Amino acid sequence: MDISARVDYAIRAMLILADAAARGSGPVSIDTLATQQDLPRKFLEAIFADLRRAGLVLSRRGALGGYALSRPPGEISAGEVFRAVDGPLAEVRGLRPHETSYGGVALHLPSLWVAVRASLREVLDGTSLEALRTGDLPETVRQLLTAPDAWRSR
Fold first, then answer.
1. Does the domain at residues 5-145 carry the CATH identifier 1.10.10.10?
2. Each residue's pLDDT tens digit in the chain (154 positions)?
3. Domain ranges for the chain
4. What is the DSSP string of 78-138?
C-alpha cells in the first residue's frame, strides 16, 4: 500500500488541529500548520479545501481565522481523513475490491482484495485523531505493532 504525501500531510495537519482542540485554542492558520510540521503551504491549502468539502474541518476568515476540527478529535478517524484527500482506501485498477471478477485460477482473488480493504478499514477507521495524538492506540493496532516482523521491511 502506498500512503500518499496528501494523506501524510493531511493526518499531520489534522493532529495539530486535534491538539489545538484539546488545549481549547481557536482556529489554526495554514501558515502555522505548515510551519509546525514543515509542510508545503500551497499543497496544504489544496488539502484543506478537500477536508473542508468532506466536512472534517471548519474555516474562519480574518486575522484570527484559520481551521478547526468540525467534530471532537475522538470522533474523526484516520480513515475519514484518508478518504477525504485520496479517495477509497482500496481500489483494484479503479474498481472497488468487491466489483472485481476473475475467472480460472484467479476466481477467488476478489476475496483477498476485499479482505485487504477490511483490514485497512479496521486499522484506519478504528483509529481516531485523538488516539493518534495521545498514543492511546486501539488494541487491534497495538497487537499489529507487536508482531515479530511489523517493523521490518520485506
1. yes
2. 789 999 999 999 999 999 999 999 989 999 999 999 999 999 999 999 999 999 999 998 877 789 999 999 999 999 999 999 999 888 888 878 888 888 999 999 999 999 999 999 999 999 999 999 999 999 999 999 999 899 998 8
3. 5-145
4. HHHHHHHHH--S--BTTB-GGG----GGGTTHHHHHHHHHHHHHHHHHT-BHHHHHHT---
